[in-house]
Amino acid sequence: MAKAMNFGVVGLGMGGHHCRSIVSAKGAHLAAVCDIDEERLARHVKDFGCKGYKRYSDMLKDPEIEAVCIVTESGKHAQMGAQAAEAGKHLIVEKPIDITPPRITKLQAAVKKAGVKCGCIFQSRMDNCNILLKRSIEKGHLGRLIGAHASLPWFRADSYFEGPHGSWKGTWKLDGGGSLMNQGIHTVDLVIFLAGAVKSVCGFYAVHNHKIEAEDQAVAILRFENGALGTLYTTTCCIPDGPQRLHFFGTKGSFIRQGGTLEVCEMGPPKVRERLLNLFGGKRKKQAVGSDPMAVSTDGHTLIIEDLVKAVRGNREPVIPLESARHAVDVACSIIKSARTGKEVQISSMRK
Ligand SMILES: NC(=O)c1ccc[n+]([C@@H]2O[C@H](COP(=O)([O-])OP(=O)(O)OC[C@H]3O[C@@H](n4cnc5c(N)ncnc54)[C@H](O)[C@@H]3O)[C@@H](O)[C@H]2O)c1
User: Fold this and answer.
1) In a domain, 350, yes or no
2) 157 and 176 together in one domain
3) What rounded mean pLDDT belongs to the chain?
């Protein structure tokens, strides 16, 4: 049996989830954690019985570490990821990859030059219902896709944006925005995963009910490469908060997925609909992430970590490579640019 791959985790807020996921992932071993926050560092070293580093550069010098999970503030991901790649470490990068397209391009170049593997965290892509819906759309069970509409009516209390680990949230510099780039980026990526690439967007945003710099509500119209149109709204202002909702329809059918449950599924042959509804419809337990940022299952993270190990061993691309994970950031940044300029923005313009 191959030796377990040694992981280091930097950033011990959400990074705690990464630690638990590494511990439960097959073929992975948590060798070290790193944080400049001494209390967080000491707690994780004690809880996981691993090495602890206060300085990131010291963890990167540790020859035992083969892969690093980057779980720091979003606006630090690309630079810290590139540092790890240059040190010859494989990577897992939390969502969003970073907050600007040019920085992600630099990370891609660093990963390519170093010849390491980089997997990205968008755990919704590992969800079985989403995978089966994607396959069904690709098989033409909706007919020609016409509409792809998504909403995320979430709530965040003021306290979420306060304190040493809250005040970067809702800033342009480190969060790249608010409800769209932070909470909403999973929904942007999921819409792309299911509907395909976005060609252009028109967007609007505002700060309505928080003392933050960026935005707590964003609204956009999406034009997809395949001709479908869509809408997207994300907010952290909704009281009470509601679940993520997707409403997709094509020339032959539609589905509505809300809070992890398939509410409507009128697509494909009866056997396909029945299977999807039996597996994911009706009375299943609803997801509860709307107002609690830490209510995230570690399952998706575990699968992505196991996949990185397999990608390294088998010398193949990880299941969520940089190239596909960056599109959500290209789209989010285009929505912000459109809101600022009052013009439709072509996504390809973000790659130049
Ligand atoms: N996949 C998900 O569902 C999910 C959920 C929550 C957060 N996230 C992402 O995780 C990332 C972190 O979010 P968070 O809520 O944990 O933030 P946080 O502020 O709680 O944690 C970030 C940590 O990074 C540490 N840090 C910053 N710079 C460092 C450096 N140079 N060296 C060592 N440590 C450093 C900070 O001290 C802090 O402890 C964000 O990008 C966020 O978008 C993802």
Assistant:
1) no
2) yes
3) 95
